[in-house]
Q: What sequence folds into this?
């Protein structure tokens, strides 16, 4: 199993970024996926999750209506569209695979992360 995040970078406050997580080594369309983030010196924080077909999504209160998780099962990729970014969104962002098709709090594989820095 491999999860490879991309799309991070430096963005000004109020800007947008779209993160991607390319999956391989398993049947992507069978499993729920999530995004997490970890700011320097802080614990890893769950951000958003999506069910195996994309029919259900959940978000942390801190990103609700600002971030959108989506997936393209034909491309084995999960996305995180981040709008109206704030300096406090600065973190390393990770994608994670669940061992279930429905959204759950179990994760069995993680990507290596992509840095997002929000600064003027």
A:
């Amino acid at each position: 199993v491999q999860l490879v995040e991309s799309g991070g970078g430096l963005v000004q406050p109020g800007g947008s970024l779209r993160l991607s997580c390319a999956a391989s080594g398993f049947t992507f369309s069978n499993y729920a996926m999530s995004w997490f983030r970890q700011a320097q010196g802080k614990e890893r924080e769950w951000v958003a999750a999506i069910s195996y077909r994309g029919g259900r999504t959940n978000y942390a209160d801190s990103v609700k209506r600002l971030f959108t998780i989506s997936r393209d099962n034909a491309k084995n990729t999960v996305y995180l569209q981040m709008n109206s970014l704030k300096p406090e969104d600065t973190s390393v962002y990770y994608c994670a695979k669940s061992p279930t098709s429905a959204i759950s709090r179990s994760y069995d594989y993680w990507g290596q992360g992509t840095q997002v820095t929000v600064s003027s």
